[in-house]
Amino acid sequence: MSQIPVAKPVLDEREVEAVRRVILSGWVTQGPEVAAFEEEFADFVGAAHACAVSNCTTALHLALMAVGVTAGDEVITVSHSFIATANAIRYCGAVPVFVDIEREGFNIDPDLIESAITPRTKAIICVHQLGMPCDLRRVVEIASRRSIPVIEDAACATGSEIFWKGRWEKIGKPHGDIACFSFHPRKVVTTGDGGMLTTANPEYDRKFRLWRQHSMSVNDTVRHGSRQVIYESYPEVGYNYRMTDLQAAVGREQLKRLPEIVARRRELAEMYRRSFDAASGIGLPIEPSWARSNWQSFCVELPNGWDQRAIMQALLDRGISTRRGIMNSHLEQAYAGTGSHRVATGMQNSLRAQDRTIILPLFVQMTDVEVSQVASALQSAPVYLEPATV
Ligand SMILES: *Cc1c(COP(=O)(O)O)cnc(C)c1O
């Protein structure tokens, strides 16, 4: 029986050739390829500045530092996200303040933000969960009225779009102050691991560039190319959050494919939508009229009474890989300590999403037939279970 994985990156000889070129050039870490990838990425999303880093978690860390988050500050975000969102806040010694997600969808409920704000609130991180843009217009409106910077966790949202002041724009322009992207293989395009920060603020961009390379006053490429001896200095503590030129070369090839990748993913999502019988009771993801998802993941809600784990096992037994819905960080042991976080609202939608949803396979190479196989296997899954587990 053929296996249907939950995700699969799109990589071939084009990426191999790109890496080969870099290896033979003799310059393999952050250098000309990173610079070119940044320029192309900035162009693609329509941002003034793009700065490449080692992954999205380090991007979030630098974004929080840039807007001035330090020990004891509070940052409002969702618990219902990959744990890196909340962890980045804790790297700063700050406290994640969790609010619930909306009833429909998996993004922050803007109505809950205002009540979570305190004099210590220094930033809001909103997540474009699973590639679906969050309600940025309302998040940004509240944040600017209260003078709080907005950082977009756009880890999953490369290629997603939002209708903004009368036209479609790419996530990452950015519409908040800073947007952070991931190029992990589970995302829509990949560099193995990798991340990107976009911003309109040149001062933030300058800080990202300094901090990602140990806060070294002169970067390696400049020193390498100089005809004069240069002594560098280290005015503050920085990090090694660099992307390598090997990764950037792959990223440049991935970026060229991105429009095709998003188009195919949107086609597959539409096919899923048509394959489910309304009578099945399976809840399909909702795309608001002002959002165009890249469908990084297609996450469905199981009908009442269906056991998540048993259904996932029944599908796996039939060669279909799925994942449970997104986790809730505040339930993990890493968040058990007092002072590690604050839960500012009810969490019923976040809990329901974790326990009642599953992520279905969706990848560019997936065939139309595989989509209908998955849909029919899921709709008939309870038939395969013992009555007690349904
Ligand atoms: C994947 C992911 C991250 C972390 O990205 P890395 O590049 O793996 O560090 C952060 N936030 C969200 C919402 C993610 O899905």
Explain this structure:
There is one protein chain. By secondary structure, the chain is of the alpha/beta class. The chain has two domains: 13-256, Type I PLP-dependent aspartate aminotransferase-like (Major domain) (Aspartate Aminotransferase, domain 2, 3-Layer(aba) Sandwich); 258-380, Aspartate Aminotransferase, domain 1 (Alpha-Beta Complex), CATH 3.90.1150.10. Helix content is 36%, strand content 15%. It has twelve helices and 14 strands. It has an eight-stranded mixed beta sheet, with helices on both faces. Strands 7-6-10 form a three-stranded antiparallel beta sheet, with no helix packed on it. Strand 4 (121-127), helix 6 (136-145) and strand 5 (150-153) form a beta-alpha-beta unit. Helix 1 runs antiparallel to helix 9. The radius of gyration is 22 Å and the shape is globular. The mean pLDDT is 96. The structure holds pyridoxal-5'-phosphate. Pyridoxal-5'-phosphate is lined by residues 55-57, 81-82, 84-85, 127, 153, 155-156, 182, 184, 195.
Q: What would you say the CATH architecture of the largest domain is?
A: 3-Layer(aba) Sandwich
Mean pLDDT figure: 96
Termini gap: 25 Å
Shape descriptor reads: globular
Low-confidence runs = none
Helix proportion: 25-40%
Classified by CATH, the class of the largest domain is: Alpha Beta
Q: Output the structural class.
A: alpha/beta
Largest sheet report: 8 strands, mixed
The CATH superfamily of the largest domain is Type I PLP-dependent aspartate aminotransferase-like (Major domain)
Counting DSSP H or I runs of 4 or more residues, the number of helices is: 12
Which ligands are bound? pyridoxal-5'-phosphate
